[in-house]
Amino acid sequence: MRIKHLLAVASMGAAMVVAVAPPASAATGYDRCPSLRMCVFTGPNGSGAIAYFANGDANLGDSVGPVGMNNDIESIWNRSGHTWELFDGVGYSGTRWVSHPYVGHNNVIAAAANRVSSLRDT
Question: What is the DSSP letter of 9?
Answer without folding.
Answer: H
